[in-house]
Design goal:
The protein has helices at residues 23-31, 66-71, 73-90, 97-107, 122-125, 152-162, 183-186, 214-226, 240-251, 278-288, and strands at residues 34-38, 111-116, 132-133, 136-143, 149-151, 201-205, 229-233, 256-259, 272-274. By secondary structure, the protein is α/β, with parallel strands linked by helices. The strands form 2 sheets. A 6-stranded parallel sheet has the order 3-2-1-7-8-9, sandwiched between helices. Strands 5-4-6 form a 3-stranded antiparallel sheet. Helix 9 links the parallel strand 7 (229-233) and strand 8 (256-259). Helix 4 (97-107) runs parallel beside helix 10 and helix 8 packs parallel to helix 9 (240-251). It starts with 22 loop residues before the first helix and ends in an 11-residue tail after the last helix.
């Protein structure tokens, strides 16, 4: 089954608009047992754009599909050239107030877990433990032939050595760490093989058109089933990989609260959607719950 297709979706105009009332968010967190499901919108304040929000990268960028990546050497050359350049910026991103607030909620015993659709590692960098990376992480690389895993920083070093002087100016950066480059800018970029078997290297992320590992989906379903409520942060829920968990919660009668500035595909399943910037919203809720806003280890 294709779990991450790029979907065309139109918001339901019959649904109420988003609110600025943070009461439902504070109430859910105050009760505890909240499962956070985060998306690209949570990382925009760290300088990583989302796909579908204002200025979202889907307006100019089609994400690499698994079929394209495995289908030919030229597609892999284009991907790795763009990803290598993007990694220089992507790898320097730091957690923002929203990531730090989520970590603070967890430390204060308010969360049952965190599932993220993001591949940037910023939840962990902010101090969150046990984060389920639904779509994997860009800081790991896997060989499609022998299954060996290796650190992205090691691949970055090898690509730097193999492509000395490669420094085109990108047109933008995307949530998957892929920079916008033309074919001319990609040029004859040299892709390096697996050091163990000489096979094809791929970032340890779920590409569009690729399936999320079944055991990961099952674990997420268990977390949803155990949650008191589900708090969606910065996800349009346009792709089924995240939407299915919101549907599962709603079908079980578990409240779903969404914080996202734009309408989402899950609004019909939610108690409310708060249309506020995530950093500001979550910091405000933390202060309301008595989590010190001046503690750099929290928010």
């Amino acid at each position: 089954m294709r779990m991450r297709p790029t979907l065309s979706w139109t918001p339901d105009a019959s649904l109420p608009p988003g609110t600025t009332d943070l009461g439902p968010v504070a109430d859910a967190l105050g009760t505890g047992g909240v499962l956070v499901l985060s998306g690209a919108g949570l990382s925009t304040e760290s300088g990583i754009p989302d796909y579908r929000g204002e200025g979202g990268s889907l307006s100019r960028h089609t994400p690499m599909t698994y079929q394209d990546f495995t289908g030919g050497a030229q597609a892999r050359r284009r991907y790795w050239a763009r990803s290598h350049l993007g990694w220089r910026t992507f790898g320097r991103a730091r957690p923002n107030a929203g990531h730090r607030a989520v970590a603070a909620f967890a430390r204060h015993g308010l969360l049952s877990g965190v599932i993220t659709q993001n591949v940037d590692g910023l939840h962990q960098a902010a101090g969150s433990d046990g984060v389920v990376e639904l779509h994997g992480s860009l800081d790991r690389v896997v060989c499609l032939s022998c299954g060996d895993f290796s650190p992205r920083r090691e691949l970055a070093r090898r690509l730097e050595e193999a492509n000395a002087g490669f420094a085109p100016v990108a047109g933008g950066i995307n949530p998957d760490g892929d920079a916008d480059l033309t074919d001319d800018q990609v040029g004859d970029f040299h892709v390096v093989p697996c050091t163990v078997c000489g096979g094809i290297l791929k970032p340890d992320v779920v590409f569009f058109g690729e399936s999320v590992p079944p055991q990961r989906v099952a674990h997420c379903r268990t977390l949803v089933g155990e949650a008191t409520s589900v708090l969606v942060l910065g996800s349009s829920l346009t792709v089924m990989s995240g939407l299915r968990f919101v549907r599962q919660a709603a079908q079980a009668g578990t409240p779903v609260v969404i914080v996202n500035r734009d309408p989402t595909r899950g609004d019909q399943h939610a108690v409310t959607r708060v249309a506020l910037p995530l950093g500001t919203a979550l910091t405000t809720v933390a202060e309301h719950l008595g989590i010190p806003a001046d503690d750099p280890a929290t928010v």
